[in-house]
Amino acid sequence: MKQPRKMIFNLLASSCLLFAASGAHAAEPLALQKIMKDLGKNMQLITDGISRGDWELVEKTAPLIADHPKPPFGEKLRILGFVGTNMNKYKDYDGETHDHAQAVGKAARAKDGREVILAFEKLQTSCYNCHNEFRKPFVEHFYGKKNAVQ
Ligand code: HEC
Fold this sequence. Notes:
With 150 residues, the protein is an all-alpha fold. The protein is built from 6 helices and no strands. It has a single domain, classed as Four Helix Bundle (Hemerythrin (Met), subunit A) (Up-down Bundle), CATH 1.20.120.
């Protein structure tokens, strides 16, 4: 015998589950993540340029890192909300990345391989410094603990 009330209950229960499941997927990647992936790719291009002494490649890639796109305004607010009182630190790290990427570009223009490598090391360190301090709590905050990077 059919039990309409039970059916309705099941329906409600399963749609709640669906809702909960979709809630778990709600953490869409931030625009920042794509920006970061592109930074990573451009760093690889520079490494390749250094290996082959292709200073033109290095010179034209460095500004893509120095002047990387910013996340849309709404996302920026969410990020600043998360960063909170560490805002200056966070911005300083981004500023260091900018400055060192510019130095890489400048050295490449002068075809000064040694200087490119020195500046590139500083650039990598600037990426590392921000990741070391912010990335794990950032990922936990925006995507949940289970996605946290080690
Ligand atoms: C001011 C802080 C900051 C600086 C500077 C920074 N990053 Fe990031 N990076 C982050 C944050 C925060 C994440 C996590 C973003 C996310 O998962 O949405 C991240 C994640 C990444 C990722 C992983 C993306 C993925 O696939 O999940 C790569 C690659 C990356 N950054 C490359 C770089 C490189 C290369 C540089 C330097 C040229 C750099 N980042 C500089 C904050 C920074």
